[in-house]
Amino acid sequence: MDKNKYKIKRIGGYLHKVIPIVDGTGKLMNTIIAPFMVEFKPRDVLQIIVGATILAIPVGLTEETWILAKELKMENVLLLGFISVLFISLFVYFNFYRFNLRKHLGQYLKRTIATYLLSLLVVGLLLTIIEKCPWGTDNILAIKRIIITAFPASMAATISDTMK
What we know:
By secondary structure, the protein is an alpha+beta fold. Helices cover 60% and strands 13% of the residues.
């Protein structure tokens, strides 16, 4: 049995990588079972929401963030949003899909996009509740505040999504 080969099996509703451990003669000695986290499940959505909330609260409640949104040009804010998506996509790629992207490209895109959009949603909800999103009077400022606060929130959401 080739020691570099592994099988994917569904155990308890989740995919796992089953890796054989063989001796020098090729005889199976043991197996290692590790989570194979390429599927995007409802549990992942909840982890992303909780992770985004962890940093959305302290960052979203700071006056510095509100002022920064007023002072920054929209181009800079959009660049910050782009960097957020880039960091999410790179982290997700290297932690979940590095060797399996071809077979799971749809799941990769879903996880990456959902992480950022859910982070934006969590931040938008929080800032709206504390009345720091001036919807109807200054929508651009509201969007800028959401994007700026979503930068750290989306990073926390991405990290929390790696929990098993």
